[in-house]
Amino acid sequence: MQSTQTKSQTESDKEKESNQNWKTGLLLVVLSLCFIGILVRLFIVQVINSGKYRALARKQYESRIELKPQRGSIYDRNGHVIASTINSASFAVDPSMVQHTHTIASALQQLTGDSASIWEQKIRSSDKSFLWVARSNLDRSSILDTLQDIGLIRVTEPRRNYYFGNAAAQIVGCTNVDNQGLSGVELALDSVLRGSSGYMVMQRDGRGNLRPSVDLPSAAASNGKSVQLTLDMELQRIAEYELERGIADARAVSGTIIALDPSTGEILAVASSPSFNPNRPQQASQETMKIRAITDMYEPGSTFKLVTAAAALEEKTVAPADTVDAHGGIWKLSDGYEIKDTHPLGRITFAQGLEQSSNVVFATQSMKIPDDKFYKYARDFGFGITLGIDVPGESSGRMKKPREFDGATKFFMAYGYELAATALQIVNAYAAVANGGVMMKPYLIKKVFGEDGRETESYAPQKIRQVVSQQTATTLTELLCGVVERGTGNEARVQGMRIAGKTGTAQQLEDGKYSKQAYTASFVGYFPADKPKVAMMIMLDRPQTDIYGGKTAAPIFRRIAQQWISATHMEGISDTETKTATLPDSVSVPDVRGITVENAMTVLHQNGLRLNNHGQGIIAQQTPLPGKKVLRGTDVIAEYRVPTPAIKRDSIEKAHADALRPDVRGMSVRRALAVLHAANVKVKVQGSGTVVKQTWAGGGKEKSCLIECR
Description:
This protein is α+β, with helices and mostly antiparallel strands. The termini are far apart. The chain is extended, with a radius of gyration of 37 Å. The strands form 10 sheets. Strands 2, 3, 4, 5, 9, 19 and 20 form a 7-stranded mixed beta sheet that branches. The protein contains 23 helices and 32 strands. Mean pLDDT is 82; it is low at 574-584 and 643-659. The longest helix is centred in the first third of the chain and has 47 residues, at 2-48.
């Protein structure tokens, strides 16, 4: 029995030992698998994904900083800077750190027009640590610059500055807050002007501060190239001012001017109104940013008679002195249509038919020219096709092909209907005649040069084709001079200088019918006629005081021509004409102190001067001083004051309020009060007339100033 118990105990011990061995083995297997797993994971981390984890580690102690390039400048043909890049202050906030939310919101209300409550809500509700509140396109950032708040972040950013304001705005274009081209040349040459960004890798210390290191990689930014345009900003400013004046006089909806050099095709000026300020692109609309002279199509009316006359003279179907029949002002077609003249005419010469702009004469003369030849002349003059100008948006216009002509198409085309053209196409056709029958390709980009000033690209004039012979072009010039001297273009006459040109008055289509109220009035021509330097097109949309181009557009042409020859001392102009048209080379600087910046710009522009630093507010001081004689085109540098926001005063506001103390000595009482009130100054006045002395008082919550006048 004892033997049996011993045997049973032995078996039990063996079973326990077996279980223990099994557990030990299982543990060893698990440990081995874990070890293998760790080895595999280490292999993956240290070998396969080593680059990924090195990059993550570098992010903790290194930072890659973008180095932004400097955008290239834009110049006019005479080297005047039109656009360049300057450093400007932008502002953001860290909502979790802002201490004076209401103060910042109130300042932003003055800048943007959005209510302070909206800005307070934006700041308080944001879960970001960086919230933009005022980018560099705002001129009055100085309001924010006076505030002291640890949550207000100041950032220096490059900002595009357009020195001539609205002048040439559509053709030059503008950029967004990130300096990317949005329109015009800025868009067309964005890749040239923009340059390419660089970078610098910096190390971050334990406190999070970035420090440069020579051992870390870097790449310098490549600054953008600069561009010289064919524009002449003197002519551009004259054109824009006279266009605005002409639109106001005619009570027109809008207007367009384009001028070019007939011998080269260089665009000298392009103006459209309404316009926009490229320094504030966020306030512009697509309509005001369009280059209307190349994008908008219209039925040209009588300005297209140049093509019909050129075809008839070149094909020798008529001569200037030939007698033609104007049918008493009405010509009835077989299909029931009637072609009418404004003034009934009988038998006249072809030259008189052009001078008096007879639709009947030109419709009847078109009968002598085969459809395909008439179409060829129109196409050769650049209608129905793009001319290839180097800015975006050019329209080809519309023109029927000969197979699409019906019985009356050519008759109506002969005097500018049943086709659509752009102002560029019209002026370029006249420029071809001015250039002896040779059409040049219109272009705007003259040169491209690098940061070192070395020219990298240049663009030369390109001949497109010989449209008509030299003889025909000379004859046409004489006929067009007759239009100005004796015909419908009489209002474009300039004493002592011959001008060749043609008026146009075209009904506009509205709801598929020609309107009796909506017209396009135009005048196109070139001067001096004997040796043309400028070809120019003036177009007014829906003038109200008078529908005829000879009465509304031609006077604008005359005034621009007079000022242009005076400003450039154009060769070949007689002394009589120069005396008639000359504006003095020197002007007296007007007093713009105490008026708004926008009004000051207008006053200075009217006097042939320009405001150097554009902003918003009240002009406090100016250089040169009022009354000083300076050359036309001189920059007036103005110091302006921005009205202090009416917000709750605290120590921050006190610092802002005490920052400005305008000097108003020498100003009239009225101007002095305007400047001081803009700076939130309490004013006491003694006497009347001109301020001879000012005394400041108060250093607490209010500034006050005693001004003594005589």
